[in-house]
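Let's practice the habit of predicting before peeking. Look at the sequence and jot down your guess about where helices and strands might fall. Then scroll down.
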Amino acid sequence: MVIWMEYRFDNYILKAFLASGLLAVVMMALALGLIQLFRFGPGLPASITLILAAIAFVLSASFFERYEVGSIMWSMLVSIIATLILALLSGGVIYAFSENRHPWDELLSGFAICIIIAMTLLSYLKRSLGEIEY
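Done guessing? Here is the structure:
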């Protein structure tokens, strides 16, 4: 008799592991993007960065105008932050795949630390914001 085990996302431990793992991957990409930025300069050309800034500005301005919660200055701040995050993420991916001098033990140690920090952050946010239903 074959026992069929169905993997569902109702398991709390699996949800917590996936959420902290994905957040840790983003944190590692941001950290590698900062290394890329300070060592070699921006990973993206200026034209692509300006396009990202323009798209983020239009999206944030239309959101703030629709819900009447902010101004053009808040839209500018949101677009600068979003552009910086997207540029760092892309720079981190470029740095991770172009530089082959990374020792795997350092990357795995950094990833493990990021998982711990991500789980701590998610636990704190869950307590402070309440239960979020998926």
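How did you do? The helical segments are 12-40, 46-67, 72-98, 104-129.
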